[in-house]
Amino acid sequence: MPSILDSKCILIVGSTAGLGRSLALSILALPSKPTVIVSGRRKERLDELVAEHGGDGRLKALQLDVSVDRASLKIAVDNILDQFPDLDAIMLSSGIQHVYNFSKPETVDLDNVMSELSVNYISIVSMITFFLPHLIKIGETRPSFIYTVSSGLAVVPAPGVANYCATKAAIHSLSLSLNAQLKDQNVHVVEILPPLVESELHDHQGKSEIYSKFWMPLQQFTKLTMEGLERGDVQLPIGAIAGNYAKFEQGKLDVVFEMQAFMRKAAEGN
Predict the structure, then answer these.
(1) Any bridge partners for residue 144, and if so which?
(2) Any idea of the CA torsion for 3, 51, 197, 13, to the nearest 10 degrees?
(3) Which superkingdom does the taxonomy of this entry point to (predicted)?
């Protein structure tokens, strides 16, 4: 099974902080010595990353705002591919999270709902679509990869962050379908399902002090995730998520492949 050790050049979207940043640095340290492209909105964070860790020239930085309109995002993807024609992997880890209380609907900020949906799902499916012709072409000669980052909340939602959970459930479902659709093209879709992890994601909610009593340390999450990526696992439920994954999701990917085979057979019959 191909693994991240087979990647020569990987773009990590949303890598100025948290999970994305930590995984980017761990991938940079792999013995296979891939080129790692970090990207995000905050240029100063990107510059700091390259200044601290880019000594051998394999760490590159690109400013990228995934909340822009579709046409601008397409231009950004085209520019990335022009600069890095050997790109064979993308990891999509950007995301935002807001708290809503739907029992008090007058407090629900629908602008935040739409923003969350756009950043956490629409931008992801758009970028995948824009990158896929290139990744399929790469797959003709060597493996290419799409790494999605959903959440354990895609399996069992936390009601307080209902819309976030819904966007991650959408990423989870999309990942299963793409895994089946793209396998014959040698494009490998790998889904990471983090638990509650030490992150800046919750700072604007004022919840970091509370969550810090329960979250998985970022270093531990990174270690477990890298082990799965190096093994070539297709789905990576990390830490406490493994129990809910085994209860609700185990074997689902096999059923998705069966559904794919059934639909192909039905189409051929027509």
Answers:
(1) 187
(2) -60
(3) Eukaryota
pLDDT, tens digit (0-9, with 9 covering 90-100), for 140-192:
999 999 999 999 999 999 999 999 999 999 999 999 999 999 999 999 999 99
Q: Which residue has the tokens 């990869």?
A: 145
List strands edge to edge, sheet with 144-149.
Answer: 59-63, 35-40, 9-13, 89-92, 144-149, 187-193, 235-237
How do residues 82-91 score in pLDDT, each as one tens digit? 999 999 999 9
* Three-state SS sequence of the chain: CCCHHHCCEEEEECCCCHHHHHHHHHHHCCCCCCEEEEEECCHHHHHHHHHHHCCCCCEEEEECCCCCCHHHHHHHHHHHHHHCCCCCEEEECCCCCCCCCCCCHHHCCHHHHHHHHHHHHHHHHHHHHHHHHHHHHHCCCCCEEEEEECCHHHCCCCHHHHHHHHHHHHHHHHHHHHHHHHHHHCEEEEEEECCCECCHHHHHHCCHHHHCCCCECHHHHHHHHHHHHHHCCCEEECCCHHHHHHHHCCCHHHHHHHHHHHHHHHHHHC
Going by C-alpha positions, the residue among 102, 99, 97, 131 that lies closest to residue 11 is: 131
Answer for the pair 37, 62: CB distance below 8 angstroms, yes or no: yes
What is the Cα–Cα distance from 195 to 139, expressed in whole angstroms?
Answer: 31
Distance from C-alpha of 152 to C-alpha of 237, rounded to nearest angstrom: 7
Residues near 232 by Cβ (< 8 Å), separated by ≥ 6? 1, 2, 3, 4
